[in-house]
């Protein structure tokens, strides 16, 4: 029963609505340097943080893989928005493909959810090569999404608001490799 409860707690920790609660608690522990991994509660808390990191780590991967999964997730959001519209319901945030582009969704996700958590994770792990690599991918991917967003905004000839990256945009993006 104890294992069931702990597993349930780990799974519930991935709820995005509790992101700030966990982030504030982690920041407090790191600032106060009072995490004691010999304490079962602190170990469990760090397992929750590790699972949260695993759950949202897509932006910390290589661009091609991260982009592919980002597009898939956003397509799922858009299908939900289409169904909500069909049944004359209010369209949920991030689910309106007429106004929520994939680059804008990804930039917000990275800025407000992923970056703060992974910066604290790197602080906890002592800036390991893995943490640094993940943060570097995150920063490069965020720059690429920003570049795509800028191209979408400056492209008046395109009526496609899906946020999909066109072949020419992808080629230009690869040629402009960001640091």
UniProtKB/TrEMBL annotation:
Keyword Metal-binding among UniProt keywords: yes
Example GO BP: signal transduction
Membrane spanning residue stretches: none
UniProt key word Ion transport: no
InterPro entries assigned to the protein according to its UniProt record, in alphabetical order: PDEase_catalytic_dom, PDEase_catalytic_dom_sf
Segments of this protein annotated with the region Disordered: 150-179
Keywords from the UniProt entry: Hydrolase, Metal-binding
PDEase domain span: 1-152
GO molecular function, one term: metal ion binding
Start-end of Polar residues biased regions: 155-172
Entry protein name: PDEase domain-containing protein
Species in which this protein is naturally found: Bambusicola thoracicus (Chinese bamboo-partridge)
């Amino acid at each position: 029963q104890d294992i069931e409860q702990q597993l349930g707690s780990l799974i519930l920790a991935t709820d995005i609505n509790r992101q700030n609660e966990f982030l504030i608690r982690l920041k407090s522990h790191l600032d106060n340097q009072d995490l004691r991994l010999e304490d079962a509660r602190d170990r469990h808390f760090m397992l929750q943080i590790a699972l949260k990191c695993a759950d949202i780590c897509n932006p910390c991967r290589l661009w091609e893989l991260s982009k592919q999964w980002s597009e898939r997730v956003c397509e799922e959001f858009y299908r939900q928005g289409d169904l909500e519209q069909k049944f004359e319901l209010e369209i949920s945030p991030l689910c309106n493909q007429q106004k929520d582009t994939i680059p804008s969704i990804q930039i917000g996700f990275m800025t407000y959810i992923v970056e703060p958590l992974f910066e604290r994770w790197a602080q906890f792990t002592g800036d390991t090569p893995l943490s640094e690599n993940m943060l570097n991918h995150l920063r490069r991917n965020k720059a690429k999404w920003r570049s795509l967003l800028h191209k979408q905004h400056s492209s008046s000839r395109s009526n496609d608001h899906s946020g999909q990256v066109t072949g020419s945009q992808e080629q230009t993006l690869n040629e402009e490799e960001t640091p």
